[in-house]
Amino acid sequence: MTRENTLPYESSTPTASSSPVNPLRVALASKAATVGPWVITTDPATVEVLAKTAVDFLIFDCQHGPHDLATVGPLLRAAAIHSKATLVRVPSSDPWIIMRALDLGAAGVVVPMVNSAEEAEIARAATRYPPLGNRSYGPLRPAPGNVFDAADGPVVFVMIETAAGLAAVEEIAAVVGIDGLFIGPVDLALGVGAMTDGDLQAGLASPLLREATGTIAGAAARSGKILAGAVFSPDHARGMAKAGMTLHVLGTDTGWLTAGAAGLAQLGSELT
What we know:
12 helices; 8-stranded parallel beta barrel; globular; 8 strands; 272 residues; alpha/beta; TIM Barrel
């Protein structure tokens, strides 16, 4: 039995591609900075609207967000209608979870709480079919790119957000096949002792976090890896761009909606 591919990108074939097809790789290769939101909505129709906007990618959070591997599939399919690049932050580095997210059609994964090069390699191997890895074959949706091509397979980010991960960041960054290091600033602030009293704003402004961020940025630069991360404001994004960050997750879809509604309400008050 064959599956008919009705999406804008072709399904995987065991041949090398001359240039990336994966829309996230295309965006990262063609732009100095990429920006997208955490997607909180669970409605596929809303995701389809988001996919029609000019943001570079959408990221679905299966670690802390409302999504899980049973519900994120329809959302990925809605984004694929408009060829929008998608990332899934998986809840852990368990290989079967990573494989499942990719089987559902994600262009890449963000793997949390990676503390060693060994854990990074386990995550990487789960994204590639043999002989490049140990991913089991069973895609439910056409892949956004040629998964048999090392240069066009799923994008793999590992999160550096613990004291152990920070201590091992040079070794993690050296893992071949990992595309980038993703800074989780809040957990990182907790991990380096910058937020012992729960004060988020003080933690994000702490010299301890700035030093840790600089260490991660340096490791990414030396290894030729992409620097990615969550940012909390346009100014935060600008500062991280100066540090070398090229993939910025800024806010949530609901936050953007709230901001837009506030602007509309302000206009209404000016018109009266």
